[in-house]
Amino acid sequence: MRIVGTLLLSGWLLMAPPMQAGGPDPAAPMAAWRPLLRFETTAECEATKMRLERETVGVGNTAHSHRNDTNPMVGLRCIPADPIPPPK
């Protein structure tokens, strides 16, 4: 089977929000997010998301900050990998 004009993906994508001056911007439109990893199941994606968030607690923070706002792994989302049109 040959599919022309569309790249088909299956499974789930772990997406990261774009970074702003103050850290990740989870309110940004999904078109601005970047894919990190692809998974066959939502369970695999969610497990990796939780592991990355847990392993990077404190990353990007100053020594006096207890907030996690600048951690680049905060705000990750698992989304279905829908068909993506090829670049023009």
Task: Walk me through the structure.
- By secondary structure, this protein is an alpha+beta fold.
- It has a domain of 47 residues.
- 16% of the residues lie in helices and 22% in strands.
- It is built from 1 helix and 5 strands.
- It has a 3-stranded antiparallel sheet with strand order 4-1-5, with helices on one face.
- A hairpin with a 2-residue loop joins β2 and β3.
- The protein starts with 11 loop residues before the first strand and ends in an 8-residue tail after the last strand.
List descriptors.
1 helix; alpha+beta; two-stranded antiparallel ribbon; 88 residues; three-stranded antiparallel beta sheet; single chain
Short summary:
The chain has 88 residues and is an alpha+beta fold.
Average pLDDT, rounded to a whole number, is 76
Write down how many β-strands occur, each being a DSSP E stretch of 2 or more residues: 5
Q: Which stretches are poorly predicted, pLDDT < 50 over at least 5 residues?
A: 1-6, 61-68
Structural class by sheet pairing and helices: alpha+beta
How would a textbook summarize the main sheet? 3 strands, antiparallel
Strand content: 15-25%
Radius of gyration: 15 Å
Physical arrangement of strands within the biggest beta sheet: 4-1-5
| C-alpha end-to-end distance | 23 Å
| Number of H/I helices | 1
Order of secondary-structure elements: EEEEHE
Helix content: 10-25%
Shape type: flat
